[in-house]
Amino acid sequence: MGERSSAEQFADQARLRQRINELPAVQARLVRMSYFEAKSHSEIAEALGMPLGTVKSHLRRAFLQLQSKVGGAL
């Protein structure tokens, strides 16, 4: 397969951002911190004053929702 054009990659990223915005606010914030800011789960927990297990649970649910909406491309 050939490489994807930058326009296709941009469109995919825009769709992903739209789907993230459809998540509950807490989940969306955690996904942004994890995915776009490349923060570890422990860094997120510390920054937000949340238990690590809570951060992991929220992210797991968020990524499952995103997978179902985006078609498993994550």
From TrEMBL:
GO terms for biological process: DNA-templated transcription initiation. One of its GO terms (molecular function) is DNA binding. The keyword Transcription applies. It holds the Pfam family Sigma70_r4_2. Residues 15-66 form the RNA polymerase sigma factor 70 region 4 type domain. Gene3D superfamilies: Winged helix-like DNA-binding domain superfamily/Winged helix DNA-binding domain (1.10.10.10). InterPro entries: RNA_pol_sigma-70-like (IPR039425), RNA_pol_sigma-70_dom (IPR014284), RNA_pol_sigma70_r4_t2 (IPR013249), RNA_pol_sigma_r3/r4-like (IPR013324), WH-like_DNA-bd_sf (IPR036388). Keywords: Sigma factor, Transcription, Transcription regulation. This is RNA polymerase sigma factor 70 region 4 type 2 domain-containing protein.
